Amino acid sequence: MVIKMEKQVLNTIRSYNLITENDNILIAVSGGYDSMALLYLLMKARKYINFNIHIAHVNHGVRNEAIYDEIFVERTAKKLGLPYYSKRVDMDGYAREKSISSEEAGRELRYGFFREVLASIDGDKIAVAHNMDDQAETLLMRIMRGTGIDGLKGMEFKKDDVIRPILNISRDRIEEYIELNNIETVLDKTNLLPIYTRNKIRLELIPYIKENFNPNITEALWRLSENAYEDNKFLENYLDEKYNLVLKVEKKDCIILHGDLFRKEKLNFQQRLIRRVISNILGDIQGFSSEHINMIVDLFSTGQSGKKLNLPNNLIAKLDYRNLIIKIRKSSKIKDFQHKLEKGKNDFQDLGYRFNVQVLSMEEVGSIKRYKDIAYFDYDEIQNSIYVRNRQEGDRFTPFGMKGSKKLKDFFIDEKISRDLRQTIHLVVDEENILWVVGYRTNDLYKITKDTKKVLMIEYFCYNTRED
Fold it and tell me: How many domains does the chain have?
């Protein structure tokens, strides 16, 4: 049985690419059966994969005996010759301060500490000891909250920087492994008390289901999670196509969707698109209920331009013309900038743009084709140096094809460019005028004519944002 389990964990690691050569793995060790089994199983896996193990322990400050757990884990790390990191926290005090449950507080404090350590050791992943029984408990909790198919997939073997190498192993088999190997552990007595939701499910609900309905409920829920995972993977791939279709602008703190295309989607995919947008901005959708998602969908489907929703985690959702915007709320004024453009390649990391500037003869240019990412100007009309800058109060220019100048603000209004999108648009200017509202319109005063001898060509690339 021992060899079989060790092979199973090694196969899981390889199948899901959980650990690779020379990884720095931080194992969360409480001292209980699950985490001690994980520790020793990963020690065995090092015979086949060369990686480094570090141990981290969090004392939640809930039990008087917790200090003995801390000492035990530290002693184990020293015995095994492994680096050890620990932290004492006030879980219940943090829960009161943040107005969250003790379980949520413990999770935030643990992972906050783990990621601090991970950064300090140039680490790769956090290994946690969630197992098949934990998966069953998670699914039951989510089912009672009314989860959808996303929630039914449960925890994953690998999610961002967290890996779960023993997720497909039952608690009974883990306990048997501990006993057969004479591995010393400690007991967290709070796990035996029905004081938290998860404990109640573990100690009361699951035994009741086993006795009265299905003795193999844990395995049945595992199969449910696997089926939901595969179905969800198909939906996610399909959602990728939909997201790319409706996406207009994607930045770290702001995503803009095409309103007309969004409204053509079925309700369930509108909801999924909103979740995707929030997750892409914040990293996850913690704090957002189905009610929040439906409020955003209602706003985007039936609201009027300018209407706005204040959302959790400092997000806002709003309509502007036909654009649907979700972004992080900002209180400070956008900082002005101006960068000189030289001939050749000009990279501006702070803007997320690269500009390629060339001076060509008319013969080299050939027939001029209009692209939104390339602009052509009569070089002899340029007044000294050229720059890229953000918009300023009172900006004016003469849009290509028009006579007479127009306020840039009025141009944006006429083109139905939303206020949020305006902040992402840069201007190429010389010493006197705007040459190009980048990606939109050039200045008619600098257009190519039959008398043009040299052409200034400017091409831009948007490399850390996306705009369609």
Answer: 3
